[in-house]
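Hi both,

Apologies for the delay on this - the queue was longer than expected. I finally got the calcium ion-bound model through. Below you'll find the protein sequence and the ligand SMILES exactly as submitted, and right after that the structure tokens for the full complex including the ligand.
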Amino acid sequence: MVQKHGTKELTEMLSLVAAITKFIYEEARGDGLSYTDIAKLLLDGDFQRKLAVAVSGITLVDDEILDLDGIEGIGLARFLLDTAEDIISTPIAA
Ligand SMILES: [Ca+2]
Ligand SMILES: [Ca+2]
């Protein structure tokens, strides 16, 4: 019996990608993305935590993808849809 993996590490990785995407999207819709913006993001405590969480256990992501089942796939799809909705519905900065 192959060991069953959940989607914890994969979800953490997707959360990081989502946070970066949201940041770029907001900046692009605001005053544009600059090196200062990127520096600010990299120094942000919340972002650093997300990054650390995503990087830790990164070697397990492959295993999680390889044994994704239907329920997990639906859960991830839902997570991505919710994330996309959150990003798109963010008001444009004044
Ligand atoms: Ca900016
Ligand atoms: Ca992780």
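Main takeaway for now: The pocket of calcium ion (ligand 2) is lined by residues 9, 12, 53-54, 56-57 (CB under 6 Å).

I'll put the files on the shared drive as well.

H.
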